[in-house]
Amino acid sequence: MNWIVKSQVAMNMSKTRRINLKPAEKAIRPDTPIPTAKDDQSTVEWKHINWRKLEKRVYKLQKRIYRASSRGDVKAIRRLQKTLMKSWSAKVLAVRRVTQDNQGKKTQGVDGIKSLTPKQRFALVAKLKPKSKCRPTRRVWIPKPGEEEKRPLGIPTMYDRALQALVKMALEPEWEARFEPNSYGFRPGRSCHDAIEAVFTAICNKPKYVLDADIAKCFDRINHKALLEKINTFPTIRRQIRAWLQAGVMDKLQYQQTSDSEAGARTRATGTPQGGVISPLLANIALHGMENQIKQYAETLPTRAGYGKKVNRASLSLIRYADDFVILHEDVTVVQRCQSIISEWLKGMGLELKPSKTRLTHTLNQCENEKPGFEFLGFNIRQFHVGKNHSKLGFKTIITPSKQKQKIHYKRIASIIDDHKATPHTALISRLNPVIRGWSNYYSTTVSKKTFAAIDNLMYPKLKAWANHRHPNQSAEWVSKKYWQSIGGDNWVFATNQKGENPMRLHSHTETKIVRHVKVKGDASPYDGNLIYWS
Length: 535
Fold this sequence. Notes:
15 strands
């Protein structure tokens, strides 16, 4: 078979421990001893592994799984998934992801392990194998941005995280071929900006009513039985996923079962822990089918020519990012009916809408007591009346950063400045630049230039107060010359003296260019093999 490639990698690395580089199709049993440098076979160190070659091997398998799922060949899907689960290349990549690549690579589980040496990584690769049992997750509470409420995270052990990454490699291509076109959260090749662009496309030519809804405690209330039936995979992965779902959590040395006991009812296991590698994929699988349910209702709506299925399906839009979604249509009764349909559909997964975050409004006009426009993924989306000279439609769609996100961002900048009163301005600049760049890049695809300028204007008094606090006995002119420079035609740039060896400058928000985002195609996936499109 063409996808099986045998590689021989020889490195002259004396006085170091060396490990066999096995072909991708051969599985390593847990009891297999780790080879030493005395073996006659070709050996390689962890840092000298040809990662590009391993990624190609795994991608070929994932691409075949995607194509088999697209044509509905279940037998081929299961065979290829089992091959990938046994692949040494996939196991090594899974271990590398959780120990080196992921942002939470230093977070420990209940076993207390938060870092591995190269030798321990190879040992972990040799032990990776699906089981019917696993250790509980460690409960960590993190604050929600701008809210007093905290979000619970369940941190699995290092072994479970690596195994979850391996299982995700096998399941994700299968479901990427099935997922709906307007689902954007936690999927490869898709982002928040794709969801915002989909909203803009749906309302740019016609004002519509909007149901902005959120699912209450989505990760904590997913019904395990309904989720496992929906995944419908082979027993090995099914047993492993069930073990992860029912592992329970350790919260301050107290064990809690992952179940929901109701008075007079049988115990019903619920929830998938936030913090696991596979949790976002499981949540997307649980919520898969919402858009199709709405489209089926759209086909029953009358049109001028009777019942036009294609026209009605396009007029009614459901755009979802993880557990946050919006429903758009020009008729308010249709949107209200969609809310009841979604509420009934969610009951099958043990979920419900959150009343405090469910809002019915209009994009252009005031709807009852609700102001026009809505907020979605940190953006404020609203339409404004304009004259015919500005737009033939009589209105314009404007998407800007939400007021709440602007306040949170400015508070973060102000707190950084206040926390660095005793540090040199080089340390302050190096701390502020990543925050400014990250926030500006996120909002650089919408109408954000005025917002960027406003935040820059608010930063100047804070920086001025910081500089005066450091030099209370110096004049304002002396302080200004020390901390503000003229660089490249820009005056009043907070920077170090350009005569120094490593001059640094504070990047402003307005330096970020506004570039329109190109939305991903609805049926496109990185596993479809169209590398020209994704390049």
